[in-house]
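In the design runs reported in the main text, the only information available to the sequence generator was the tokenized backbone. The following block is the verbatim input for one such run; it is reproduced so that readers can re-run the procedure and compare outputs position by position.
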């Protein structure tokens, strides 16, 4: 079986990113390991493990990478967080300070609302239609 296991998300600070993804979005910290070159291998995942693509939170190393923090997809929605209970997660995330850019809407494919992560990357919170 083949699947995408990780997607790199360039961040400016590991601790701030870990806090946002674990506390505001409810992800779990899967790995936080020092590397020989002085960097860290930091991975967060949604859900209870093994059922989704993880995010490798990679701290920007130079000016070119710092310029990409928050704009990895040119302003488009680039990440899609599926849920089995939209109302629950929308309420929890809003209470945790997550910025939603629109009111929830019902589409043929499910209930969805666009939100921003702490850097401005756009995400869909999506409960797929049954």
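Verbatim output:
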């Amino acid at each position: 079986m083949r699947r995408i296991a990780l997607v790199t998300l360039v961040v400016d600070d590991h601790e701030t990113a870990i806090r946002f993804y674990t506390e505001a979005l409810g992800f779990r910290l899967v790995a936080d390991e020092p590397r020989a070159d002085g960097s860290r291998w930091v991975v967060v995942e949604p859900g209870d493990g093994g059922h989704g693509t993880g995010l490798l939170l990679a701290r920007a190393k130079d000016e070119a990478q710092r310029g990409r923090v928050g704009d990895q997809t040119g302003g488009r929605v680039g990440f899609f967080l599926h849920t089995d209970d939209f109302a629950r997660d929308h309420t929890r995330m809003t209470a945790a300070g997550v910025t939603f850019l629109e009111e929830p809407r019902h589409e043929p494919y499910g209930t969805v609302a666009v939100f921003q992560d702490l850097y401005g990357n756009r995400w869909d919170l999506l409960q797929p239609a049954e």
